[in-house]
Amino acid sequence: MTSYAKHVNHDVSPMACPVHLDDVDLFGDGAQEHWYEAYEILHRDSPVHRIDGGGLTPGTDAFVLTKHADITQVVKDPVRFPSVTTMRLGKLVDQGLSGEEIYAAHNSLMTASMATLRPTQELYFRHRKELTDPWVGPGALRHREMITQHAHSLIDEWIDDRSGAARGFDVEFISRFARPLPQRVMASILGFPIEDIPRLAAWGDAAVTPFVHGSGHRHEMTPEQTEDMVARLDGFQEYIYEHVTAKRDDPQDDMISFLCDVHYEALDRQLTDIEIAGIVHAMILGGLETTQYALEEQAQLLCEHPGTFEQLRGDRSKLRNFVEEAMRMRSPTHGLSTRVTAHDEVFQGVDVPAGSLLHMRFGAANVDDAEFDCPYDLDLDRAGVTRHVTFSTGPRVCPGATLSRLEQQIAWGALLDRVEAIEYGADNDWLHQPGIMFGTLKLNLRVLLADTPLSLGTGRVASS
Ligand code: HEM
Fold first, then answer.
1. Number of the ligand 1 atom closest to the C-alpha atom of 338
2. Residue 457 located in a structural domain
């Protein structure tokens, strides 16, 4: 019997719920609705799960790691478990290619930028410390006021929609809050005009294609998908260059102006346009959908746990723990295949040969009962609430974690200020989107305002 409270739309999935290990498929159609049931089976029967032939080179395998202890060990040790990205960049550097040549060959601004700015683990640290930390790492705390303004102005856009409805009204939470908030925040940080968000969003959607439409644990795309993605990214580079040129002439208080001006101590020089464009691309790729899904799943957890929203309204000191617990229980990024074994290793008694690809299942590690008591309980008093690996951990922990945490806390702070309660609205027969991220693209919330009667439902409100 599973201890995971079945998701309201569990039964809509085209995939049958797994019962035995042989049924487990983390990557098939509709797998997302059964990920948590699959994790219970994997934790019990195959916590280090081999994917035959799933390695990076012919004849090598991949292993899905689901235990918190194994994943933290791996991500904390970049020598024993090197990053696939760093290995690939090293090969490009060995070929002696310039940023422009790498871009021409690989069609990726990020690859070109990373290869010249941070091809080694040491430069990776310096890149983060000098270039991104001041804006989306610890330095993100300076954005508090800007984020608060965006959160409230988004709520302003629908708070009066009730137009006489007796018990509040339905709001499509993704398009009216969870998606535009990180978009506006990121546009403000980078220094792009808010009115350009539809274009930035389209480029952002294209950039995440492998993680949504790629297949299997390696997020592989067909040549057609790659071609389509490249076509959809058309114009992005030129758009960034236009802004770089403008900001070189007339710097503002934003991240692109900073990148145009900064002296990168690690290489004792300034950044080129393509390097700046690669960093901007990484911010758009990493900083939009992830936080959107975190907010969306938090809203669902609140709908599934009646009374929690009111509890948080009454005691804001619990808000930080709510955000962390929600990210643990519904991690936006469930799994990434980004490390390999440099040597023969043994995890949970399973031999993992040198050269194996490791698929780190962060979503499973976060509900590992060897690490978290009653992992399926939303526990606002949980000790060590940030032990989850939603952002990974160790030296390569997500560089935008501080920004995302701040956005989530401010978002819910604003919603708690303006709304008395939320529950599922009508017409919520959605599935989570495909890929390795965990999020829905639609969520109707019924919003009850402070002067409306409080009557929380326990599940979806049936369509009338
Ligand atoms: C809830 C929101 C987020 C989640 C769950 C998340 C999760 C992750 C994870 C698991 C990694 C891989 C770390 C590793 O390899 O050990 C990562 C990397 C990354 N994240 Fe985030 N992230 C979030 C928000 C953000 C934001 C807001 C930004 C940008 C401002 C961002 C930018 C990046 C970048 C650029 C990388 C790649 C770093 C590298 O080159 O290795 N992320 N993120």
1. 15
2. no
